[in-house]
Write a structure and sequence with these properties.
Bound molecules: flavin-adenine dinucleotide, (2R)-2-hydroxypentanedioic acid, zinc ion
CATH topology of the largest domain: Uridine Diphospho-n-acetylenolpyruvylglucosamine Reductase, domain 3
Number of domains: 5
Largest sheet: 7 strands, antiparallel
Number of strands: 18
CATH class of the largest domain: Alpha Beta
Number of helices: 15
Shape: globular
Structural class: alpha+beta
Radius of gyration: 23 Å
Strand content: 15-25%
Helix content: 25-40%
Oligomer: single chain
Length: 474
């Protein structure tokens, strides 16, 4: 290896610089099969110092870098463009749990640690790290941070931003910012940490983090509640919250169309009702108290919901297997969608209290564009975040749907904007939404973001073309 590749090999060792197509394939394509990129190499550093040295070498040679963790992005954020000029910087070798502090309730990890491994490490000391999402077996803490990931427990614990105390970041100029603080209070100026969280690999490469831990919940109570519609689901949310307070950990909504899809495509999926209801809510409570008390509390809330005619039917899981089966229905939706065909995916948020109104308005707007399009709507109702997926009409070809999809996306996003919502609640902008930024972000926001990008990464080498449009310089 010579030139840049030789330098990279000198930093990380030749075996950690992949250049043949077969080895690079998993790193240059996204998991949804939507983006197919190319790279001159995939580099796999083993430490923050190696990451910094790679960034310095790339800066000197003007080489674009695409940071990558588990490559589970829903927005093509970790996939290089097709030019073949970029280097993919894969953090997965950096998978050390550096320290756990059960008194301060913190865990310090390398950025390449898989989320599920953080769960296990926390559990071993009787603590809990609450970020939870379908890809937790392969996504990494660095990717979770770079996208400010949400998931199914935001309602109680917040997004990744709220779960993080400190960061270590390799900057595009080859320096390392050591912000690995475990302080819960520190008012010494601008919150640099919060700038890197959600920056999608465009400002620096996160190499380590100090995360918050919580007491391990000993008890969980999980129910599936059949509801007539989203409006009833929102009233149910208020009712359960009122009766269960902070014990309410997850409140996940899915329409009957989602359930149909899961039952069709996921072999082990079952519903505990005779027929598929118009909509379902998965409610989960958790507590450090015992199971029986929690189940009784949930049951009491569901009786009240039924009396108020908010619930058509409900079942509380009687054991871990039943709770898992409930989650299988919810977590299987993305997989079932992929098996059904290419979806027009939307990850919007609107104020929680206006979600039912939004769904009705978006449904009308979509039907006006194309009446037969299938709506597969689900998500984190308690956070005001919906995955508003659309599938082609049964009699429409994939090719025709691909032509139609941008118009559908336009009307869905315009509706979200009309409700003062966001076009990306948790999946990030990546390359999927970058073209929409000028329409949905205010000029002053774009101007400030571009100024920050110019400050951190003046040569625009870090994840170019993601999150922000390339500047006129490129
Ligand atoms: P990647 O996909 O590798 O990268 C994502 C972005 O982060 C890219 O822009 C990349 O350049 C950047 N990046 C990665 N590592 C670093 C680093 N160390 N430093 C700087 N930038 C970096 N997301 C949610 O928020 N909530 C969900 O409920 C949810 N559910 C999902 C379910 C499934 C089945 C799947 C496949 C995905 C889901 N996602 C969800 C999306 C995705 O898993 C998350 O965004 C995840 O946080 C990405 O982590 P990753 O390590 O795979 O990152
Ligand atoms: C989820 O909540 C993920 O399951 C994926 O954010 C959503 O596939 C999707 O649209
Ligand atoms: Zn989600």
């Amino acid at each position: 290896m010579t030139g840049l590749l030789g330098r990279l090999a000198a930093i990380v060792g030749e075996r950690n610089v992949l250049t043949d197509d077969a080895s690079m394939t998993p790193y240059v394509n996204d998991w949804l099969g939507k983006y197919h990129g190319s790279a001159q190499a995939v580099v796999r550093p083993g430490s923050a110092a190696e990451v910094a040295a790679i960034l310095a070498a790339c800066r000197e040679t003007g080489t674009p870098i695409v940071p990558q963790g588990g490559n589970t992005s829903m927005s093509g954020g970790a996939t290089p463009d097709a030019s073949g000029g970029a280097v993919v910087l894969s953090l997965t070798r950096m998978n050390r749990i550096r320290e756990i502090d059960p008194i301060g309730n913190t865990i310090t990890v390398d950025a390449g640690v898989v989320l599920a491994h953080v769960h296990t490490a926390a559990k071993e000391v009787g603590r809990h790290f609450p970020l939870s999402l379908g890809a937790e077996g392969s996504c990494t803490i660095g990717g979770n941070l770079a996208t400010n990931a949400g998931g199914v427990a935001v309602l109680r614990y917040g997004t990744m931003r709220e779960l993080t105390l400190g960061l270590e970041v390799a900057l595009p100029d080859g320096r390392i910012w050591d912000g690995l603080t475990a302080l819960r209070k520190d008012n010494t100026g601008y919150a640099l940490r919060d700038l890197f969280i959600g920056s999608e690999g465009t400002l620096g490469v996160i190499t380590g983090a100090v995360l918050k831990l919580f007491p391990e919940p000993k008890a969980k109570a999980t129910a599936l509640v059949a509801v007539p519609d989203a409006e009833a689901a929102l009233s149910l949310l208020a009712l359960v919250r009122g009766k269960c307070g902070d014990r309410l950990t997850a409140f996940e909504f899915m329409t009957g169309a989602c359930i149909d899809l899961v039952l069709r495509h996921i072999a082990d999926a079952r519903i505990p009702f005779g027929a598929v209801p118009p909509a379902l809510v998965l409610v989960e409570l958790s507590d450090t108290d015992d199971d029986a008390a929690l189940n009784a509390r949930l049951e009491d809330a569901l009786v009240a919901a039924s009396e108020a005619e908010l619930a058509l039917d409900a079942t509380i899981a009687q054991d871990i297997a039943q709770a898992k089966a409930s989650w299988r229905l919810r977590e299987g939706i993305s997989e079932a969608l992929v098996r059904e065909g290419k979806a027009a995916k939307h990850d919007i948020s609107v104020p929680v209290s206006r979600m039912a109104e939004f769904i009705a308005a978006a449904d009308r707007a979509v039907a006006a564009v194309s009446p037969g399009v299938r709506h597969v709507v689900f998500g984190h109702l308690g956070d005001g975040n919906l995955h508003y997926n659309l599938l082609r009409a049964i009699d429409m070809s994939e090719a025709d749907f691909a032509v139609l999809a941008p118009r559908l996306t336009r009307v869905v996003h315009d509706e979200a904007k009309a409700y003062r919502g966001s076009i990306s609640a948790e999946h990030g902008i990546g390359q999927l939404r970058v073209g929409d930024m000028p329409r949905y972000k205010a000029p002053i926001e774009l101007e400030l973001m571009a100024a920050l990008k110019g400050l951190f990464d003046p040569a625009e080498l870090l994840n170019p073309g993601k999150l922000l449009p390339l500047s006129a310089k490129q």
